[in-house]
């Protein structure tokens, strides 16, 4: 492993049998996995470049068990890594050698669907797509749709503030979650947010969504349901150059058109996606742009003509509009399958996630081409063009010495470029371990210290998902926090102000 993680504590490793026994007392039956082969299944998430077998895996059935596990781990000083479906691409669920991996896959029930209030209340192990499947017969759906939506869990979506194809118009997870139930490291079960559009008080919900398992464990989520649009039309447009496609994206947004989704793929991604799903993508273009418009039929027809005109002005050589729902779904099938399809191009790939201002797309794509030559590794580009969220797939072979390290360096260079042009390190995958050491590129030392103070307020002993997000994790006392233990402060003789 090229990535440095917190050093395991020898005393915790020596107490492994005791820890396993205690967890079995809380979660009886098959809820505790302590054999090597069973634990190996949890050694990484979708960022498979980094692996670590956890000390033990526990799969609770109830929120009360989650609370009991966290209290026991707090009292015993044992670290805890929460995990959803393991589809994270930033290493957010990478285990610790001396840590309990807390899997939430058994909390997988849809608890309530309220069509009048247009909300669904679900447990964290419910998959993203399962919500839409449960309500689509009544004409509703859940908007955020990551490419892994068939497998990724809502709890993981909340942790990483996941996005997806249709988040350009309808927002990320944070814009579609109304409330969460959170279990703190002290075992308290608290509710944050509510069904109301704008609950009173501090916006703690905005703090929890995207907190990457650092502040607590989500055991229930209230999500917003949307009515299925009257019409949805997709345009498939091929361009002679990636720069022309990027310019078309900028002009579509500048014209005041907000598509439901606007995605781009470059030539390598187009060819492998078409070979994978065979939906009729043009193979004689350097860039493919998929634009979906939804709403009233008259509006979609008008906007489709406007988008087509912009595409032609920017060198579109192929332009097809979906004739029916089946063809619209087919247009998206290749984009949704682009990540697994890229596996045809190389034994391994490193999926990045950075966001830039849309107007800088042509420039950034050109500079990434030059970087590809500099690092000697090819890259396929598949990304959410409408909101400037890039997903370069760096191709490498982990069996060739030095290639993983070059892929990491290439990825770091791309993310530094994103920040340089006014963007950010992540759009939807989170920081995890992948971008952790790049946080100083975007935040000052004071910025990071303030963020860590929030962490200390929720988790004073730094037991929840350590090694993620912060490049250097200070003890809470170093940040000026006074820890009160059982009502006693340290050095009570000193004056307090």
UniProtKB/TrEMBL annotation:
**Coiled-coil intervals in this record?**
none
Does the record's keyword annotation contain Protein biosynthesis?
Answer: no
* InterPro entries assigned to the protein according to its UniProt record, in alphabetical order: FAD-bd_oxidored_4_C (IPR004113), FAD-bd_PCMH (IPR016166), FAD-bd_PCMH-like_sf (IPR036318), FAD-bd_PCMH_sub2 (IPR016169), FAD-linked_Oxase-like_C (IPR016164), FAD-linked_OxidoTrans_Type4 (IPR051914), Oxid_FAD_bind_N (IPR006094), Vanillyl_alc_oxidase_C-sub2 (IPR016171)
Domain FAD-binding PCMH-type intervals: 50-228
Under the heading Gene3D superfamilies, the entry gives:
3.30.465.10, 3.30.70.2740, Vanillyl-alcohol Oxidase, Chain A, domain 4
Q: Which domain of life is it from?
A: Bacteria
State what protein this is by name: FAD-linked oxidase C-terminal domain-containing protein
Organism of provenance: Sphingomonas natans
